[in-house]
Design goal:
Two copies of one chain form a homodimer. By secondary structure, chain A is an alpha/beta fold. Chain A has three domains: about 45 residues, no CATH class; about 130 residues, Response regulator (Rossmann fold), CATH 3.40.50.2300; about 130 residues, Rossmann fold (3-Layer(aba) Sandwich). In chain A, about 45% of the residues lie in helices and about 15% in strands. Chain A has 13 helices and twelve strands. Chain A has a six-stranded parallel β-sheet with strand order 2-1-3-4-5-11, with helices on both faces. Chain A has a six-stranded mixed β-sheet with strand order 7-6-8-9-10-12, sandwiched between helices. In chain A, helix 8 packs parallel to helix 9. The radius of gyration of chain A is 26 Å and the shape is elongated. Chains A and B meet through helix 4, helix 5, strand 2, helix 6 and helix 7 of A and helix 4, helix 5, strand 2, helix 6 and helix 11 of B. The structure holds a DNA duplex.
DNA sequence: TAAATTTACGCAATCGTTTGCGTAAATTAA
DNA sequence: TTAATTTACGCAAACGATTGCGTAAATTTA
């Protein structure tokens, strides 16, 4: 039953003295093939372990039955959980998921999008590190009609599918909690300015301060891109000049940079400065002193994003209706 | 320059009054096309943003220019780093990497291997959660001649490409270090029995004990599969009955289960029991008390595995020469 | 019983490329 | 000047599957 090369339809057709088209239809259980013939073909195909060549199928049908997801990095637990949610839904509907990493490089991101288009993925889940306009340009220039669902970092307009968590509320809650702990000089380690998550988290942070009668001090707000050096420089500068009594960190990485920097401070500051940050890392709750965490419902975000994408892929009526889902994020590990 | 659907060769050929074959050859810089024609075709193709359809190319050439990597889970830093190493090499050679997760399910693993074969990946990097024999069976039944490089968990025979770290030495060093810390009742939390890494790490652990004149106590050795519950049960049982003074954990997950279990113990045990475990998690070094870590050179393992795979893919002479690379792993975070 | 319909299959085009082969025209060699 | 070669292109098959259409034979209908 083993063979040297994959069995194809014409192998079966020759062996059974049937035409290729009959074999194809028999395997696809077409009504225009006799029951007896079907039985013969199907059992023979099973015996020789026939598997349709997916490339040929894809070329014919102009469908690949796979969706792509582009994330900054897979080792980030937040994105890993999203991927898991996506796979959960996609696999259950017979789709495969191809994961791409941009490592937060615009160049890589654009190349990947081009490649996804050329390989004719049926859809794309995207959390762009890049300028939104540029992404849409690239997408258009491929000429592909590639359905896209944005998640986490999303465009500001309403002409696209989006899945996010309630960044504003989460940032508000986190900052408010720090204030309740008696903190007043709360630094905000923000991600790159200009992208949706940074803007919303900043807004929540500011609102919480103002709500508590604390004015927003621009000196305590630092934007960092994805390079570790920039974050470290910001942290050192903050410690030297302003000595905040708490940090609110806007991403997984920034949370850990903050945590590490604070732990290196001399006591008693090291154990007095409180930190709360966005993170889905399962190890975070093992840290002492605690790193309080805003945990996003990443798995669900992935599930929902995949469902939206597959819906638009398989939809018959072409009138698009853009979806915008916002899920709550929870503050955890606050003793 | 934008268009509604992707431009294909025949679009260009019509627009320029040339045959499709001439256009194809011109774009591929064939010597049998005049310089002037080439210039015209290439500039027009650039103008209309022509990108070859990779599915059609793949079907024609029976090559897809992508390789697959199958890992238990991507959120595990060890595997994430391996993937990064693989992508580093593969991308530089024009290959794309498709990542699959088995979540340590045999069923998923087999389905994925089948799918990889059907989609005609040019090669496969595999760290099987599954019975080796079964994996080879499945591979054979697809009829695909799919080059494979195993990494981390590898078959015992020498008729395949393998990349591993020196598990024996690392386990020996880790155990020896614990002994030097004055520990005698060192428990070993091992992974599933029967797979290469478990066997080798167990051997290193035993050798270190014997080397120090300590007999190996089977009660202190616990095999756990990938389910958290099993590990927790083992840990509770160990604590109730034997109260080891140190733990040597054989994987990322087991390390953290151990760490968490120990931290929950009443003092002074919680701070006296020492733990050393295999982990590549960047957060591990932030833990206090320390979690000493055996760090595998995951990025390099990924690079080497990808190089081996791409070599066998692109090799002209068909006589296979199997490679077996073993890299050292380092004990870190031991103050 | 003749006509209409259904059943069960084969032929050939198609998806978008690549490539072996054929062939005029242009060039070189004899 | 004629023959041999090279240049520069087009035709058509191929990769492996799906599918519209055509058509004998079998069945049903009038």
């Amino acid at each position: 039953m083993d063979q040297e090369r994959p069995v194809k339809l014409s192998d079966i057709s020759k062996a059974l003295n049937l035409s290729v088209s009959t074999v194809s239809r028999a395997l696809n259980d077409s009504h225009e093939i006799g029951d007896e013939t079907k039985r013969i073909v199907q059992s023979y195909a099973a015996k020789v372990n026939y598997r349709p060549n997916l490339i040929a199928q894809s070329l014919k049908e102009m469908k690949t039955r796979y969706i792509a997801i582009i994330v900054p990095e897979i080792s980030n637990s937040f994105f890993a959980e999203i991927v898991n949610g996506v796979e959960f839904v996609a696999n259950s509907q017979g789709y495969h998921v191809v994961i791409y990493q941009t490592q937060d490089s615009t160049e890589r991101e654009i190349n990947i999008i081009r490649d996804v288009a050329r390989r004719k993925a049926d859809g794309l889940l995207l959390s762009p590190s890049t300028n939104q306009k540029e992404v849409k340009e690239v997408m258009k220039s491929t000429g592909a009609k590639l359905p896209v669902v944005y998640f986490d970092r999303v465009p500001s307009d309403n002409y696209c599918h989006k899945v996010v968590c309630d960044n504003y509320q989460a940032a508000f809650d986190a900052t408010t909690w720090l204030i309740k702990q008696g903190k007043r000089r709360i630094a905000h380690m923000a991600g790159p300015s200009g992208i949706s998550i940074s803007i919303e988290r900043m807004a929540g942070y500011s609102a919480a301060l103002l709500n508590a009668g604390i004015s927003v001090d621009p000196n305590l707000i630092r934007y960092s891109n994805f390079l570790a050096q920039e974050a470290w420089d910001n942290l050192r500068d903050l410690e030297e000049k302003y000595q905040p009594d708490a940090y609110f960190a806007s991403s997984d990485r920034l949370s850990f940079y903050c945590y590490e920097a604070v732990q290196k401070l001399p006591e008693p500051r090291a154990s007095e400065v409180k930190i709360v940050g966005f993170t889905n890392a399962p190890l975070a709750h093992l840290l002492r002193p605690k790193l309080s965490a805003i945990v996003q419902p990443a798995f669900d975000m992935g599930k929902i994003a995949a469902e939206m994408l597959l819906n638009t892929i398989t939809k018959k009526n072409k009138d698009i209706e853009y979806g915008f889902i916002k899920l709550p994020a929870l503050l955890k590990n606050t003793e």
